[in-house]
Amino acid sequence: IHALGGEQDIRKMGGLKGTVKVTYVTFLIGTLAIAGIPGLSGFFSKDAILAAAYQEHPAIWVVSLLISLLTCFYMFRLLFLVFFGTYRGKAHPHESPLVMTLPLMVLAVLSIGGGLLNVPHIFGGHEAMKHYLSTAADGIRNERPELSATTEWTLMIITVALILLVILFAWNRFGKKATIDPEADELPFFQRLMARKWLIDELYAKLFERPYAWLSTQLDRTGERAVMVPLMMGPGGAANKAGQLLRRLQSGNTGFYLFGMVVGLIALLAWTLYNA
Predict the structure, then answer these.
(1) Comparing C-alpha atoms, which of 105, 111, 132, 116 is closest to residue 37?
(2) Tell me, what DSSP letter sits at residue 232?
(3) Distance CA 162, CA 66 (A)
(4) Mean pLDDT value of segment 10-24
(5) In this prediction, what percent of the chain has a pLDDT beyond 70?
(6) What is the pLDDT of residue 62?
(7) How many Cβ atoms from other residues are within 10 Å of residue 192's Cβ?
(8) Among 94, 108, 134, 153, which is disulfide-ready with 26 (CB 3.0 to 4.6 Å)?
(9) What is the DSSP string of 139-187?
(10) Percent of the chain predicted with pLDDT > 90
């Protein structure tokens, strides 16, 4: 995104591996780790999660495996569309500065070697990180028997084989020749529905945004303009008009002031004689 001046549409990317080499290499390592390629950190964590899921119930393992395969597919789809093929945008790609690429390098190193902190027994390890964090799970005990080594190896081989097939499928569709989805309006109904995120945005607008906007308009029209504004401006307007009337008496004409004093004295004398 930074390399393309803020562009976030992967349909306008492509062929960037030769331009943003550091970002590409770190992104590739992260993608391989997330996919669960053996030896990387994601492999060990995914294998442990899937083994625990199978230990709980095979159906949970199947669902978890399908979700992990979907993750693998969309990550490699992203990788191929962004970094492979030819550039489809109009910006001028450039590598990000070190302040952005250095954290990527650190994460890439951890993605490569992080799994070595908790190598399982099946690979001759001692699960050091698991024992180190065991106190965080006090009170949580798994009463189910441990899986046999044969079962663990079988599940692992099935998972890795399916992951490799998914990567091959993603490469054939998006790596060899980028398959760019058309605009949402040009897709069939079901695909258009998914492209528009199941119309969640439109539904949110109808249920919340539009009613809130209508309520705000009504409150502004009735409460603000019809009630609050007159209530606040009324006393101020009355004081302003009274001030304008009184200001006319302050004309600066000395004769007018003397005339006023005489009229006042006559009125005062008349009132005194009337009440005598």
Answers:
(1) 111
(2) H
(3) 10
(4) 91
(5) 94
(6) 96
(7) 15
(8) 108
(9) T----SPPPPHHHHHHHHHHHHHHHHHHHHHHIIIIISS------GGGS
(10) 41
Polymer length of the chain: 276
The secondary structure of 177-227, three-state, reads CCCCCCCHHHCCHHHHHHHCHHHHHHHHHHHHHHHHHHHHHHHHHHHHHHH
Structure tokens at 57: 């119930």
Query: What pLDDT is stored for residue 108 in this prediction?
Result: 94
Query: Distance (Å, rounded) from C-alpha 208 to C-alpha 201?
Result: 10
State how far the Cα of 187 lies from the Cα of 181, in Å rounded to an integer: 8
28 burial (CB, 10 Å; 0-12 / 13-18 / 19+) is middle
Asked if 15 and 91 count as a contact pair (C-beta separation under 8 A), the reply is: no
The one-letter amino acid code at 55 reads: Q
d(Cα 4, Cα 23) in Å, to the nearest integer? 13
Tens digit of each residue's pLDDT (9 = 90 or more) over 89-116: 888 999 999 999 999 999 999 999 888 8
CA distance 55 to 68: 17
* Residue 14 contacts residue 87 (beta carbons within 8 Å): yes
The answer to whether the CB of 163 falls within 8 A of the CB of 69 is: yes
Distance from the Cα of residue 267 to its chain's centroid: 80
Report CA Rg, the chain: 38
Residue 182: the pLDDT is 67
DSSP category for residue 1:
-
- Selection from 82, 103, 101, 102 nearest residue 93 by Cα: 82
